[in-house]
Design goal:
Layout lengths: L1 H8 L2 H23 L6 H22 L6 H27 L11 H6 L1 H6 L10 H26 L5 H36 L14 H6 L4 H8 L1 H13 L28 H9 L3 H11 L17 E7 L13 H9 L1 E7 L6 H11 L9 H4 L9 H7 L3 E6 L8 H8 L4 E2 L1 H4 L13 H12 L8 E6 L12 H5 L11 H26 L6 E7 L8 H4 L18 E4 L6 E8 L3 H8 L23 E2 L5 E2 L3 E4 L4 E4 L7 H23 L2 H9 L8
Parallel strand pairs: 1-5, 1-6, 2-8, 3-4, 3-5
Antiparallel strand pairs: 2-7, 6-7, 9-10, 10-11, 11-12
Helix pairs in contact: 2-3, 2-4, 2-7, 3-8, 4-7, 10-11, 12-13, 20-22
Length: about 700
């Protein structure tokens, strides 16, 4: 028995296949064990079949090479697989998302903070290299003994020329038979594999995207990795990058919602839009027209026009989470937070390029594309419904400003195409900065320059400006100008040094807010100015256990890492606390209603937070969602309840389907530059229909 097994093992085709398959399978098991992905019988069987296909295919290729070249290829492939799994674990922990080739445009920027990235890795992530190391030990120690014994036998075995020719012919026949057998096995495994993505009982009915769709294009890395494994996802990701799938849509006539007419109704003439839709031949545009025109027009409400004719400053705060809500440390922000309106359950879900994408979503009320650096890739798009263009139409002077360069995001192009009347970068503002990753410009200098620009507006002119700060950006693990500036103020705490440096950087931002408020008051503009603030994402580079030392909730569970402040402030308003679940996609429609702007609420996937139609819900980047009762995790398809109230599977599926549809339509609108098309069509004075 043992000799028979040994004979099978010594077959190079069998050995090569197993030397690839076993380490890869162990790597997958460790990946699932130490990471966030979850596995069960069905997805693990799919993963095993996928690894079998990969191993057999690679074994056929490797059989063309002699030792030790074949072993070198096996070792290199397994190392690359382990490294890939290792990096994906790190990206998920650090950025909150798995990385895709589609986000390669940000590779240069990521290199800037590679030290912080590696420093954030948990020790357990290094365990994925164990299978590779065991493989190397086997190849160097145990297989070497086998090769030596075989060499000794060949030395003492005399073979005639005829016998050598016969053996060579037998080897060729054996190789041919082995390849045919392995190809047959691959075909069988492919059939079985496809069965695992097609057979009904092997699918999760609550899953956001079907396995068939993910197999065509792994648009949602979290679900794809959970269903296919990290290594198969990597191959699918490469495939989709080399052979991108075309967007497939069908002409769907959504049922239009007719509002009951009341004193609060918004009456919008859809006759031209309906005519455009009826005559549209492009299936993508027709589908988008049908979708958006069918959405409900939210009514006006008691808050409509509350800030009409006031100025607006929106501030997206770099790397700010709820740590900033601290009266002792950050009194200026706390003043805005406690004396304005704030939403306790606001989130800024991380995605592939969180700062740029979350800024973009805050400006247009659409979801960015999960696996793409959407803001950069589609920077030439235009959006007539953006926050800038709504205020432009109302006669406001619009500007946007950021105290850094174009190194990460092409804001000069992005903001201009969004409708910003003038974009000011760090050079335009004349702010001192260092062109290095560690030291950023000072937000205190930033707000001083902002006030200089706003001072040029008379009190009779209305302005709207968007500010994106930078001082609180990582790194926190090394000494820096901003990180050390107020370090002494936190030296008496028991917090780790990286957290103290983060607090020092937040102090700069808090001082900057104080400068802004004082300056507006001196200019006589404070009473007539509304300030909206939200964080773009949690402070990358700080581990969950470090953040938990200062917050009163656990950020390591239930997407709590994504929780950030959202504040609307005017010194004439009454303070209020809202408990609705929300995110950045609701900013534009909420502001548009408060300022009584001329806008169509249907053009956003977000909703006015103060509307009776608002459903308290936050959607995360991978399609997971949460309300006060339940959390739906898209990657695993699991549901977690927080109250005694439970939902039926049908209700979970209904909400998930609606979430999925909004994300799909956002993606389609962005990739087709839909709002540029719609704007041109609606404003065309001589439409020709054939």
């Amino acid at each position: 028995m043992f000799s028979k097994l040994k004979s099978i093992w010594n077959n190079k085709y069998v050995k090569n296949t197993l030397l690839i398959f076993i380490p890869l399978l162990l790597c997958e098991i460790i990946f699932f064990g130490v990471g966030d992905a979850t596995y069960g019988l069905y997805n693990m069987s799919r993963i095993i079949l996928g690894l079998g296909i990969i191993s057999l295919t690679l074994s056929i290729i490797i059989s063309l090479f002699k030792q030790p070249v074949s072993y070198v290829i096996i070792a290199v492939f397994n190392f690359i697989a382990s490294l890939y799994a290792f990096l994906q674990l790190g990206f998920k922990s650090f950025l909150g998302v798995y990385i895709s080739i589609n986000t390669r445009s940000q590779l240069g920027a990521v290199i800037d903070y590679v030290k912080d990235f590696l420093r954030s890795f948990k020790f357990s992530y290094y365990l994925v290299f164990i299978p590779f190391l065991l493989l190397i030990v086997y190849l160097i120690v145990f297989d070497k003994k086998t090769r030596i014994n075989q060499s000794k036998k060949s030395i003492f075995t005399f073979k005639t020329k005829k016998k050598k020719e016969k053996e060579q012919k037998e080897k060729e026949i054996t190789a041919w038979k082995s390849n045919v057998t392995m190809i047959g096995m691959i075909i069988i495994l492919i059939i079985l594999y496809y069965g695992t993505v097609s057979i009904g009982f092997m699918q999760n009915k609550l899953q956001l995207i079907s396995n068939k769709e993910l197999l065509k294009y792994p648009s949602n890395p979290s679900i794809a990795i959970n269903q296919f494994g990290v290594l198969s996802y990597g191959i699918l990701d490469i495939k989709s990058s080399l052979f991108p799938s075309q967007t497939q849509t069908q002409d769907i006539a959504y049922a239009k919602i007719d509002n009951e007419q009341t004193d609060y109704s918004r009456n919008i003439d859809d006759s031209k839009w309906q005519e455009i839709t009826e005559n549209e031949e492009n299936p993508d545009y027709k589908n988008l027209n049908n979708y958006f025109i069918s959405q409900k027009i939210t009514d006006k409400n008691e808050y409509t026009g509350m800030f009409e004719d006031k100025n607006l400053i929106v501030i997206m705060m770099e790397s700010v989470n709820d740590i900033f809500i601290n009266e002792e440390y950050f009194p200026n922000f706390y003043n805005l937070y406690s004396n304005g309106w704030h939403w306790e359950n606001n989130y800024s879900p991380r995605n592939s390029c969180s700062t740029g994408n979350n800024e973009m979503s805050g400006m247009i009320g659409l979801y960015s594309i999960y696996d793409k650096c959407t803001a950069n890739e589609y920077r030439n798009n235009t959006y007539f419904e953006s926050i800038f263009n709504l205020f432009n139409k109302a006669g406001y002077q619009t500007t946007s400003m950021h105290d850094y360069t174009e190194h990460y995001y092409y804001r000069n192009t992005i903001h201009t195409n969004m409708g910003s009347g003038k974009y000011y970068g760090v050079d335009d503002l004349g702010i001192d900065y260092r062109n290095e990753y560690r030291n950023w410009a000072s937000d205190e200098d930033f707000m001083t320059q902002v006030l200089n620009i706003l001072n040029d507006y008379s009190n009779e002119e209305h302005f709207m400006t968007w500010l994106t700060t930078v001082s609180s950006h990582q790194p926190y693990g090394v000494s820096s100008i901003q990180g050390d500036m107020y370090l002494d103020e936190f030296s008496n705490t028991t917090y780790p040094e990286d957290l103290q440096r983060y607090l020092s950087k937040l102090k700069i931002l808090d001082n900057a807010l104080g400068i802004l408020i004082d300056g507006l008051e001196k200019q006589g503009k404070l009473d007539d100015t509304v300030i909206v603030l939200y964080g773009d994402h949690y402070p990358y580079g700080l581990k969950s256990d470090v953040i938990n030392q200062i917050l009163d909730y656990d950020v390591s569970v239930d997407f709590e890492t994504e929780r950030v402040p959202f504040v609307i402030y005017n010194n004439q308003m009454e303070a209020k606390t809202f408990k609705d679940y929300t995110s950045y996609v609701n900013i534009v429609p909420t502001i548009a209603n408060l300022f009584n702007l001329d806008y169509d609420p249907r053009l956003y996937v977000g909703t006015d937070l103060l509307s009776k139609d608002y459903e308290s819900l936050v959607v995360f980047a991978d399609g997971s969602w949460r309300d006060k009762n339940v959390l739906y995790d898209a990657s695993s398809g699991e549901v977690k309840y927080y109250t005694d109230k439970t939902y039926t599977d049908e209700k979970i599926m209904d909400i998930t389907s609606e979430v999925s549809l909004k994300m799909q339509m956002s993606q389609l609108a962005i990739t087709t530059n839909y709002f540029n098309y719609l704007d041109e069509k609606l404003n065309s004075s001589n439409e020709v229909t054939e």
